[in-house]
TrEMBL record:
Residues 190-455 form the Glutamate/phenylalanine/leucine/valine/L-tryptophan dehydrogenase C-terminal domain. Homohexamer. InterPro entries: Aminoacid_DH-like_N_sf, Glu/Leu/Phe/Val/Trp_DH, Glu/Leu/Phe/Val/Trp_DH_C, Glu/Leu/Phe/Val/Trp_DH_dimer, Glu/Leu/Phe/Val_DH_AS, Glu_DH, Glu_Leu_Phe_Val_DH, NAD(P)-bd_dom_sf. This is Glutamate dehydrogenase. It holds the Pfam family ELFV_dehydrog.
Amino acid sequence: MSNLPHEPEFEQAYNELASTLENSTLFQKNPEYRKALQIVSIPERIVQFRVVWENDKGEVQVNRGFRVQFNSALGPYKGGLRFHPSVNLSILKFLGFEQIFKNALTGLSMGGGKGGSDFDPKGKSDSEIRRFCVSFMTELSKHIGADTDVPAGDIGVTGREVGFMFGQYKKIRNQWEGVLTGKGGSWGGSLIRPEATGYGLVYYVQHMIKYVSGGKESFKGKRVVVSGSGNVAQYAALKVIELGGTVVSLSDSKGSLVATTDAGFTPEEIAQVAQVKVDRKQLTELASTDSFKAKFKYIEGARPWVHVGKVDVALPCATQNEVSGEEAKALIDAGVKFIAEGSNMGSTQDAVDVFEAHREANKGADAIWYGPGKAANAGGVAVSGLEMAQNSARLSWTQEEVDDKLKAIMEDCFYNGLNTAKEYATPSEGVLPSLVAGSNIAGFKKVAAAMHDHGDWW
């Protein structure tokens, strides 16, 4: 549609889904689904607004606020809020589009949406962040609700920001409801919500490893390269270590920390990374300390993929398009057998093509197996859905209960994608099924069927 502005991130997400549907037998068996694809690719609603706030000097500042309410066929719009200077409508549309199908794969009653602002919380005081969040929620509160649209956190939005926004929503609407997820544990939050995306990612990869090895292998003894240093990366790393793997890297927007010994990161060192991020500082703060210098090298301005030596598993956990085609080839040369995205659309299309070509050209354990973000990182929104359920029932589940439900959801995500790929994108004998094709088709089919039942297409 030439009358629309160029939206590269959204177009990439759409083309990735559309191409896998086209290359499967879905449209041959169900030609009417072509119309559903056309309809689902247009958001039901986009809200844009200005956010005016004052900094600590009393100076008026202004940012742009957005909420993309993409699809509500399966339930209330559900998806995070991102506060980052890179935020624009293309990025939020791509994230919201991915969220539709990710949420469908969880099996929970959630539609897809995304929102945020080009506000940058880095370098801001808590008071400035609070004033911004109050102004942001003053407008957003008109468009959300527990049965309409339930945002969560994303990049730049932690429990602190969720608390500020929740408080303002409550004042404006005069009601306490589960309108935001990622809340504090003492006021409606779910246990292991902060850990859920990272834990879920590792649980998903466990099933990949188990399937390929026939149950003979696990994370034990595996070298794992992780990008990012936020919640997803931290908790994925901790779970890998708990399961016997070695984490050899973490990174942020300024550079990468790469282990120089076989020991890799310890839980205590990851806790130090977490504190640096809470303080809104960079990994360079740690890289210059004697204890880190002894075990890690800091590579300024670089992602970790080509600097880690031999590795078995790659977990992109930072942001979109963080693995290029060339880096994908370097990971294959480094021995990687499993790559799964903790970030949304963490691999460029060139990288996905490299991984998928290797899978198709090799059999079983000799191949690279790629797990797309919409399935592999669904654990975060899954536990957000569980938080919504707990809020509705006015109760709180134990950590063990939530973790067991998360494990079951990630197992279902894996096998749903696997079995759907076998049906609609049948691989050659001995070749692993395409998890990206299977996950795309499974999520799309569920949403399209619900839209059909609602009369959205016929």
